[in-house]
Amino acid sequence: MKFKKAQTLEEIATLIAADYVGDSNFAITGINEIHVVEPGDIVFVDHPKYYDKALNSAATTILINKEVACPEGKSLLISDDPFRDFNKITKHFNPFISSKDSIAESAVIGEGTVIQPNVFIGNNAVIGKNCLIHPNVTIYDNTIIGDNVVIHANTVLGADAFYYKNRPEGFDQLISGGRVVLEDKVHLGASCTIDRGVTGDTTIGEGTKIDNQVHVGHDTVIGKKCLIASQTGIAGCVVIEDEVTLWGQVGTNSGITIGKGAVILGQTGVTKSVAGGKTYFGTPISESRDKLKELAHLKRLMKEEKKA
């Protein structure tokens, strides 16, 4: 998530009441999670296991719960609770704005686009040309939709990420400040849910077609010309490259990559990253021909046991 204008280290430190290490005028241009950070970003870390990863990332300001040696060319924000203070920054620069109308005045809707009854379109949403948005679709704030997109009834774009910190008093939500981006010619079936990024974008690439009742988690990037069948559940921070096919009831772990042109057969659990250009099946996942050989071998063993 980028700020509308650059902030100084001292300004952010004052906002969250934190100490800092570095030049008070050190420039900060946004906040992001570790997997999408860029120079100018703040990243937060609150566990020693991940200190090195955060300190050596592309982020140039690290919001951390211990004063450590500051890498050259970077700055530190020292907080007793980085998770809490990351939320403070998100709320300050991307506050929730309640809606008074079904279609926000700040929404932009392209020529030739048809909006059916009972659609909600939030603040600063942008919808391209010649789209068809069916009844009861909900499009949250800041969603970006390209041209020639079709979205069927009851689909929700931009709900919060499923991201919580377990505290003694209960689960504390990491506030979502990202967006959903649909590129041109995307089709979404009925009752799909596409969660927005925590700080970045959940993106569905040009020409991808998604069936009914599919869930796409936060910050996931789906490539071009993919086919995703019904009741598939895609976790957060997944990368699905171009021309991938996921058949019905596939489920994935978070943070994995599915390579270009891969085919994942129905009810497969994608528990790890897989290479493109192959067909996969089963849980744990393996190439379908190998899995079918295993099943055939087990069947033969069972027959031999019965004969014995």
Automatic annotation (TrEMBL):
Residue intervals of the UDP-3-O-[3-hydroxymyristoyl] glucosamine N-acyltransferase non-repeat region domain: 26-91
Key words of the record: Acyltransferase, Lipid A biosynthesis, Lipid biosynthesis, Lipid metabolism, Repeat, Transferase
Domain of life of the native organism: Bacteria
InterPro entries: Hexapep, LpxD, Trimer_LpxA-like_sf, UDP_GlcNAc_AcTrfase_non-rep
Any GO molecular function: UDP-3-O-[(3R)-3-hydroxyacyl]-glucosamine N-acyltransferase activity
EC number per UniProt: 2.3.1.191
PANTHER family documented for this protein: UDP-3-O-ACYLGLUCOSAMINE N-ACYLTRANSFERASE, UDP-3-O-ACYLGLUCOSAMINE N-ACYLTRANSFERASE 1, MITOCHONDRIAL-RELATED
Name recorded for this polypeptide: UDP-3-O-(3-hydroxymyristoyl)glucosamine N-acyltransferase
Native source organism of the sequence: Pseudotenacibaculum haliotis
